[in-house]
Amino acid sequence: MLxxxxxxxxxxxxxxxxxxxxSRFLPYATTPTRLLAQLISDIVVIxxxxxxxxxxxxxxxxxxxxxEVGRKVRDGANGVADNLNSAGDNTDDFPLVGDxxxxxxxxxxEAALDIAGAGQSLDSTASWLAWVLALAVAAPPILFVxxxxxxxxxxxxxxxWIAITLARTPAGEQLLAMRALANRPLNKLLAVDEDPVGxxxxxxxxxxxxxxxxELRAAGVRRVRQ
Length: 226
Description:
By secondary structure, this protein is mainly alpha-helical. 80% of the residues lie in helices and 3% in strands. It is built from seven helices and two strands; from the N terminus they run H-E-H-H-H-H-H-H-E. It has a two-stranded antiparallel ribbon. Helix 2 runs antiparallel to helix 3 and helix 4 packs across helix 7. The longest helix has 70 residues. The chain is rod-shaped and about 110 Å long. The N terminus is likely disordered. This is Transmembrane protein. It comes from Mycolicibacterium gadium (Mycobacterium gadium).
């Protein structure tokens, strides 16, 4: 049973004995080993994401060349249509044969405009497809790695936040000590005291601090003596 009704002197000794590194709002550990592991994981995830972003950009660039072909076809066909229409307008003024000459030129201009429309359609479709394929190639592998990484980091941050919050009060420190008794390996508990359970029950402040420090370290928090 957790007892919080200690004397003022005992309460003060529990709350003021050991300080915690103030990185409460950072999703990183303050223990060197775990911090190094987190930094390495960050570098790996960022590198992985950058690689797949570059691959996605390469796919986008490759498909965009088709869109560029469509734009060139559209621009060229529009230019041909303009020239044919202009020629048709000029030949229309010829006496007797002007109308006969202008009709095929205008028909050819209409055909060129149809080709320009096809080029525009190719441009639009290829541009849209370039983004779709780029996302389809890059997003799944990035999410496959990033989502578990994000989940683990959020879970760590939540655990760290709770541990630091508990360590700020004597009752919370006792609760951390109790969690250490339940969760930490026996050899680490015995390193704190030969009878850690008995010492916890008798509210031994030194043992409680030691047990709480074990649980804090498991949460990635290093305690620093003030």
